[in-house]
Structure of Arsenate reductase:
Amino acid sequence: MDTTLATRALSTLGHPGRLATFRLLMRFAPQGVRPTEIATALAVKQNTLSHHLSDLVASGLANVDRDGRSLFYSVNIEVAEALLSYLALDMGRARPDLIAPIQASLAAPSNGPWNVLFICSKNSARSIMAEALLRDLAPNSPVQIRAASAGTLPNSTLNPWAIETLARNGHDTSNLRAKHITEFQQPDAPRQDFVFTVCDAAAARDCAPWPRHPFTAHWGVPDPASNTSDTDTDHAAIFAQTYALLRHRITAFLKLPFTALSPICLQTHLDAIGTDTPKQG
């Protein structure tokens, strides 16, 4: 990245509103986000957000794509990588006292056991189903995996339809409980190797970075609890669809050849799983 492009990118990120917008887009990367969802998450007016997004696109830090009548904004990973390289390698001259601490914090997962954490807003349905699924499917993996889940909102309770769906599919639900994310952010909490958000609200939340920077990805799943139908049949069908989607993605995760993948390739696979859906029919 040349100095002109770096100056433009740094100037764009020098505004708190644009920086907050870019940080949110990074949490969804490489997926795109609608402006309405960004405005809600950041509590900013639509016209203000429009200026922020326009500036990010003009600087090359963000992309915008149209899908039908909707616009989706996403991070330009190549430009973001170039900016970080400019700061660390060009301006910073790759000084060991600058680079070494970053490299040490990005230590790859060991050969196991690995801790995998699923996060959603309430830890009542999607993330708790993901925890049970991974817990019961992981024994077939060559690497020992410990599954957990948490919510960003306190005082949640398990959704009875989620519990019923898990039980109907043969999962033991006796030890499942709703947990707040702070339980996993304590100094003595286990290191997380993988952290996946399964709802947009959790991904949009600006939380502190995880210690030792685990692999992260957004595996957004529609909220089955938002269904307004009054019939048990509809509720059961929607939760069954959620279960099937989560099982599909977790199965794909467990099939990854972890030891054969570089960190970049592994991240690419994790991102791809977040948009993968079961084939119909």
About this structure: Residues 23 and 130 are 26 Å apart (CA to CA).
